[in-house]
């Protein structure tokens, strides 16, 4: 019997591709802001069912159709920034988002190709190999060309029962478990009932951790004022708007100078630091008189005239001398956003369109590991905008002395789309993984405080100028993920893949050679 002979041969290939596309499109509803977490396992299982007994080439295109459906709908918010701020015609902007979705769809396509090429001779080999390949694809997608880990499978479970496992194995580990569940579902759908107990056990696993407490409260509170300026993106970098912007942030902060810590969002000071040194010195003198500290996003430069997207602390009590641009209590963004903060092949791309000449698109990269910021009497592990999507980067910034996670952002690029809501959910995942409260401060939302349990404890509405004033409960202790990170998952995936490949080899039909 041909191992690739389909038991559903009556259906045309086009129908399978359409069904795979529909299943992928449906899967994006498992993520924020919809949070229909239960949709992802059957959507993944559908991909396995459609690709069962197909050739590797057919499997590749089925995976491509599934991935394209997920990313073209789940990342449609990217079109907002391209269309409104990229200076491209509608047809060109739609083509670019389609190309992005097609590129990202290559990863599930390669998973199914490899599965059908090397691990297709038994249900057990597919069940073992698929989760390993899926994990590998998500790791690669979060690494290649600086990485784009948006819509990792585990993010779908932030508000589902598997949330209890996130402090243990992280978002990537939960994605691995989801892929095992999907593979077991597909096997049960093929009437391989012996996998039903495995499916039940995996579904019950999160409940065994639901009452586990990895961290405990210290009894201390941090009084914060998170300032949301709501500056329109089209006005943000206009020179004549510099002083109105700074005045607006000062006015919003004035009634909160009794807070332990005031935080302004990414690039709240929309000019190079050296241009505004007098302003910053005066601002710090005022903060000193009131006894508070301020953290703000700013554009800074070093002595070699390299510019950085940075976070600066003003009125650091450890500093005896007045503010100066050489103060070390700052953070330089490491994980830069392609096109937005640096342009690859810039000599070729910059002349093509305004998209490749966005304001502040020539930043340098900060060190991967930098000291915590010291502000408001606490130690802060910072991340700027896109960086919060990289679990190991954020984990690397957290040490035994870290009290709070901080992420500042400017999501005005994405308007009223689902992008900022997905970004908020990703930040919540970092808080839950690491067992630390998190402050998220943005230009126009979502500005919020997240508890160590990953749930939003306070927030203010999007698209309004305002201040979120609240108390943040500090905690102590470390989660398993904070201690070990993602590396154990890589070893587990390697073992599963090897096991699945060996089983497939054992079940491979022996070829009979004819003499010529």
Layout of helices and strands:
Elements: H1 13-27, H2 40-51, H3 56-74, H4 78-85, H5 90-118, H6 123-141, H7 166-189, H8 196-204, E1 216-228, H9 233-236, H10 242-253, E2 261-263, E3 269-272, H11 277-290, E4 293-301, E5 307-314, E6 330-332, H12 346-349, E7 373-375, E8 378-384, H13 391-397, E9 404-409, H14 419-434, E10 438-442, E11 447-450, E12 456-460, E13 466-476, H15 480-484, H16 487-507
Parallel strand pairs: 1-2, 2-4, 3-4, 8-9, 9-10
Antiparallel strand pairs: 1-13, 4-5, 5-6, 7-8, 10-11, 11-12
Q: What is the number of E strands?
A: 13
Percent range of helical residues: 40-55%
Radius of gyration: 25 Å
Instruction: Determine the structural class based on helices, strands and strand pairing.
Output: alpha/beta
The coarse silhouette is: globular
Question: What would you give as the CATH superfamily of the largest domain?
Answer: Carbon-nitrogen hydrolase
Q: Give the second-level CATH assignment, the architecture of the largest domain.
A: 4-Layer Sandwich
**Uncertain residue ranges:** 1-10, 349-356, 511-516
**Termini distance?**
23 Å
Strand percentage? 15-25%
SSE topology string: HHHHHHHHEHHEEHEEEHEEHEHEEEEHH
Number of domains: 2
On the 0-100 scale, what is the average pLDDT? 89
- Supply the CATH class of the largest domain: Alpha Beta
For this structure, the CATH topology of the largest domain is: Nitrilase/N-carbamoyl-D-aminoacid amidohydrolase
Number of helices: 16
């Amino acid at each position: 019997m041909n191992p690739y002979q389909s038991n559903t041969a009556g259906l045309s290939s086009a129908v399978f591709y359409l069904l795979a596309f529909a299943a992928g499109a449906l899967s994006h509803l498992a993520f924020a802001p919809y949070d229909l977490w239960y949709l992802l396992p059957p959507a993944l299982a559908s991909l396995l069912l459609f690709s069962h007994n197909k050739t590797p080439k057919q499997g590749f295109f089925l995976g491509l159709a599934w991935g394209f459906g997920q990313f073209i709908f789940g990342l449609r918010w990217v079109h907002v920034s391209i269309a409104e701020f990229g200076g491209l015609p509608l047809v060109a902007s739609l083509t670019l988002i389609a190309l992005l979705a097609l590129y990202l769809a290559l990863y599930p396509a390669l998973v199914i190709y490899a599965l059908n090429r090397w691990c297709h001779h038994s249900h057990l080999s597919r069940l073992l190999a698929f989760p390993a390949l899926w994990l590998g694809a998500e790791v690669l997608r979060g690494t290649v060309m600086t990485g784009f880990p948006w819509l990792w499978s585990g993010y779908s479970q932030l508000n589902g029962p598997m949330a209890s496992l996130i402090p243990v194995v992280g978002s990537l580990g939960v994605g691995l478990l989801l892929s095992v569940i999907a593979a077991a579902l597909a096997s049960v759908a093929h009437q391989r009932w012996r996998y039903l107990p495995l499916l039940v056990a995996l579904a019950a696993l999160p409940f065994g951790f639901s009452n586990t407490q990895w961290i405990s409260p210290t009894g201390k509170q941090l009084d914060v004022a998170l300032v949301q300026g709501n500056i329109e993106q089209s006005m943000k970098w206009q020179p004549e708007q510099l002083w109105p912007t700074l005045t607006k942030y000062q006015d919003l902060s004035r009634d909160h100078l009794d807070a332990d810590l005031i935080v302004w969002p990414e690039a709240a000071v929309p000019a190079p630091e050296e241009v505004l040194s007098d302003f910053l010195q005066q601002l710090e003198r005022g903060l000193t008189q009131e006894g508070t500290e301020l953290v703000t996003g700013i554009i800074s430069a070093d002595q070699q005239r390299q510019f950085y997207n940075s976070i600066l602390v003003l009125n650091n009590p450890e500093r005896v001398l007045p503010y100066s641009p050489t103060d070390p209590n700052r953070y330089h963004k490491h994980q830069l956003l392609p096109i937005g903060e640096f342009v690859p092949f810039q000599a070729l791309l910059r002349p093509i369109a305004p998209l490749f000449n966005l304001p502040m698109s020539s930043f340098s990269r900060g060190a991967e590991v930098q000291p915590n910021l010291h502000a408001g009497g606490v130690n802060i592990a910072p991340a700027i905008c896109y960086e919060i999507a990289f679990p190991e980067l954020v984990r690397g910034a957290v040490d035994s002395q870290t009290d709070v996670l901080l992420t500042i952002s400017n999501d005005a690029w994405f308007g009223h789309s689902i992008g900022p809501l997905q970004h908020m959910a990703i930040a919540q995942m970092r808080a839950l993984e690491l067992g630390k409260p998190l402050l998220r401060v943005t230009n126009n939302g979502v500005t919020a405080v997240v508890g160590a349990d990953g749930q939003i404890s306070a927030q203010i509405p999007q698209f309004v100028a305002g201040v979120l004033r609240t108390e943040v409960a500090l905690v102590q202790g470390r989660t398993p993920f904070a201690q070990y990170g993602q590396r154990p998952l890589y070893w587990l995936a390697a073992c599963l893949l090897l096991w699945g490949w060996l089983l497939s080899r054992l079940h491979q039909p022996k070829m009979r050679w004819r003499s010529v």
